[in-house]
Request: fold
Amino acid sequence: MLVTKSSSNKFLPWIVCLTCGLFFFYEFIQMNMVNSLSTYLMQDFHVSGNQLGVLAATYFDANLLFLFPAGMLLDRFSTKKIVLITLGICIIGTALFAGSTSLGWASAFRFLTGIGSAFCFLSCMRLAAVWFHEKQLALIIGLIMTMAFLGGTVAQTPLTLVINAFGWREAIYLDAALGVIIFILVWWGVKDYPDHIAELKEKRKLQLRELGFLKSLKLSYLNWQNWLSGICTNMMNLPVFILGAIWGAVFLEQTQGYTHTEASIITGMIFVGTLVGSPIIGWFSDKIHRRRAPIAAGAVLSLIILIYIVYGQQHHFDTLIVLFFLLGFVSSAQIINYPLVAEKNSPALTATSVSVVSFNVIAGGAVFQPVVGWLLDKNWDGTLINNVRVYSVTDYHQAFFVLVLGFVLALILLFFIKETYAKPKN
Reply:
């Protein structure tokens, strides 16, 4: 890890990393907005559950496609320049999505917004590894994840209220305007390296040149420990992608009778719980110098809460608020997999190695959002209300069983993931 020396501006590392975190915050709005838009998109584009899942997943398709070059580019070129370029593409895609008039164009423009998502977390991870000591790495990653899930929270009730006030297209145009403001802040606040480490910076670049593209890719993507951590993170993140990003609000509306606004408040608590839990659990992991134990505890507790939410009886509004918050809080233990992977790989390959985890997480969205939609459509009895498909409680129980299987698999994988004791590889 690279660490700044004591200087008059001790806040500079925080300014750099948290300003870049705004990019992650913005991308999480785009990633999770379909949960608030689902009813309107199904009405305007006359789409089924599976088609809505495919539309939502185009974001993840772009992410998957660009994650491979993203890590390599960030390890070799200016993080700031790459962030500005990809954030700009995301803003353009968002504005075009707001004006789309067909499912095909909407999918194409959502694909554009997903390109930036391939770079946002890796950019933050790259900067954190440069600007902070390894003893603080899980904490700063937790704070950056907090910013991301704050974006997920904004994509729930706040976005729903804006949609109710202005219409869904106008709300997305405002979203694009927010992106322009963040673009200006990133241009002002992000810096690639501290001034005093120019020599070490050149050393890392030399290491990458000597390794070459293919060997760097091989060291990162053929490391089975990276993949185990990536799949584990993927499985633990599924409630965010399934309940928080697309199906949670519709599930609560159709099975428990809540209004769209009430349902969005409840599902938004996943993101509130995660933004609170990420820095706390990250700090705790740094404090005890353990990575696997907090992840295992988070997976077990998440599984228990998830089963109670999905398969329990009718829940009171306040009870669901607490349950969704707790689900987000304990499942945020997944973020420890990122410093775990960074610590197992060469510092010169931080972004490339961590991209393996990101690849797996995004694959979860790309695969399981359409799969859950397909499972819902599979047993649908044909009921339509205002051109929106209405699914039964049994339909949701069967479709959401993939979340249960995900946490079981995560726990199994943890038996094979090696502990680093929060010590980086030299």
Q: What stands out?
A: The longest strand covers residues 384-385. The two ends are 9 Å apart (CA to CA). The chain has one domain: 12-414. Residues 50 and 373 are 4 Å apart (CA to CA).
